[in-house]
Design the sequence.
């Protein structure tokens, strides 16, 4: 399977809107993005010698390592591959081919079973479809596993996507007792802080290895970090070369990640607060249901009593009429004739008033009703 | 192992030179490169809708497929990984884990045995260290193999890096008879045409699958194509997703590859002719040996009766004194107290007169002698 992409028609409509809520494709305004990277290179006096020798990459790796409270980091250009690599390293260390993951794991759904086809690993599902992993899930697990992959937030569980820090610490204790390594798939770790009420290092220190991303909330063209002990990252570097995802050859991706990270870093918590305010306004409305009522992160679900087809047509109409583009995609809900979308607040949507965002969804709903 | 990189000191010297012969790092003048991509986007009216829907990528894939005379192509961001993928596909089809490759293969030397560690494949060395693969090498091979990887040019064999088209066709015949698939690792296929005296499609059609690159001679930031039948490319797409090297997420890398390809395409043969002229002038000199006397491609070796250390020091002096930077690296030769370098002609060096290039190497040699 490949990544989500707008059709040419939807992309065209999306581009014509100045009001946008959702995930912004990294292909949008690519020319301006390249210009901004250029300006950033000048403003930050990024030197060819440092780029070429790897010093620029090393400095960013050190910056993120310090933030996450780990010994070392490695810049890579694929998060999917990075998480496979972490599991493979723990398998090699323990001699066990089995590892645990949540039943809704990205590794299962988006990567064509790469963990098995490439790394000859076997996955055990831990926990339940409808809630994040808990310590009791690990406690009752009968299988022997090398490591457990934990997604924070656990996006696909339906809204309540984060366990408490207490739960994470309890999971850590059980993992230590059973000699199971914990890998954090923390692509969106950046927006977990308000709910977990702690700092990034405190979360990451409950894990033996971690992955964080610079696309998604950070908004870069790509790239992420594999993080952990110096020994882990040294192994990770060899595996990244084997798998073809080493960041070394992609200076533009690196600089865009650095630029976007500095530009969003101070706003991560604001994304969440903004999402909570939008959710509060939508909850007070009658045209949709909001799950969860208080978003755990900058993302929550909104359910509409409309079919996907009508909703997609309504979105196109809203784009044409009001130059407003809302929601990245719509999918069928379990309830018949209901559809849902994920509402995501990042840099673009942060600039819009919560009331304006709620109003746009109200208008969308009205258009869908009228059709 | 990671890619070749200049130290910060060498990079700084390199940057100060306006006269450059060798492989130009893609980190050099990154800001201007981004600006040129931007201008290219405008000049070619590249639309967001086409980038987002994948139409731009598809059109480039179709362009290269037509040029190579294959059914389909897939844009990927790692050539090392692309060649592993080809071998894995042929292994799956044949049910055989063993494949053949030249003893100097990139797969062996630069990728930490990824074919074995990731794909659980076993490599058989075919042919001899000191010359490219020949049909007789395959003829006498006792092992059963799924496919044979053939590098064109076979860079590491010491200078004479290309077999004849007759040899390639003979190899094809034997491979067909023995039901062995042939994979072309043609990262530098672009500069093989004058020596092989035919077109790209004629070469590629002797193989079941191919890889071509847009870095190296083409000079792009990265990216390459996996090429072959529609069925092969469909499998390749799944594997590229598994391995994390799908080009989908890297629009800037794609556009830079498109831009650089159009900018160098007409010059590939000129690179070779220019290299031959430089080699002829150097051959007439007394300060170095040239291998081969008539370069097969845009790259040949020059041997100097100087140690590596003295040569590196001389290059730094030449850069300081004359703002000339020659050769990407120097390595110890088999002959004691001799070192050698690869002289590569691509876009930057094509702008310099062959005599000026030969003179620069003479000056380098003199500085090394005086030290």
Sequence:
């Amino acid at each position: 399977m490949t990544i989500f992409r707008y059709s040419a028609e939807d992309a065209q409509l999306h581009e014509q809107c100045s009001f946008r809520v959702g995930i912004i494709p990294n292909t949008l305004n690519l020319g301006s993005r390249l210009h901004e990277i250029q300006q950033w290179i000048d403003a930050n006096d990024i030197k060819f010698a440092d780029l070429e020798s790897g010093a620029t990459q090393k400095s960013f790796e050190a910056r993120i390592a310090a933030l996450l409270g780990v010994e070392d980091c490695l810049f890579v250009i694929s998060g999917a591959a990075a998480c496979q690599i972490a599991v493979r390293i723990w398998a090699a260390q323990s001699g066990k081919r089995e590892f645990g993951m949540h039943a809704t794991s990205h590794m299962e759904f988006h990567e064509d079973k790469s963990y098995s086809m490439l790394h000859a690993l076997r996955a055990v599902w831990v926990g339940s479809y409808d809630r994040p992993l808990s310590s009791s899930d690990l406690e009752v697990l009968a299988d022997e596993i090398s490591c457990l992959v934990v997604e924070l937030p656990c996006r696909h569980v339906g809204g309540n996507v984060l366990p408490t820090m207490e739960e994470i610490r309890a999971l850590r204790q059980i993992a230590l007792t059973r000699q199971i390594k914990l890998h954090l798939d923390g692509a969106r770790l950046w927006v977990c802080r308000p709910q977990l009420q702690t700092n990034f290092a405190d979360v990451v220190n409950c894990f033996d290895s971690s992955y964080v991303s610079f696309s998604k909330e950070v908004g870069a063209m790509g790239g992420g970090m594999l993080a952990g002990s110096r020994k882990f990252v040294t192994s990770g570097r060899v595996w990244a070369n084997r798998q073809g995802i080493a960041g070394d050859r992609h200076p533009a991706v690196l600089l865009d990640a650095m630029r976007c990270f500095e530009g969003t870093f101070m706003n991560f918590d604001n994304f969440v607060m903004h999402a909570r305010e939008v959710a509060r306004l939508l909850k007070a409305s009658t045209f949709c249901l909001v799950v969860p009522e208080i978003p755990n992160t900058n993302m929550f679900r909104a359910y509409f009593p409309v079919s996907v087809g009508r909703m997609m047509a309504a979105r196109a109409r809203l784009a044409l009429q009001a130059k407003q583009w809302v929601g990245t995609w719509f999918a069928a809900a379990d309830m018949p004739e209901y559809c849902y979308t994920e509402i995501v607040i990042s840099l673009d949507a942060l600039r819009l008033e919560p009331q304006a965002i709620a109003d746009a969804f109200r208008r969308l709903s009205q258009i869908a009703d009228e059709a």
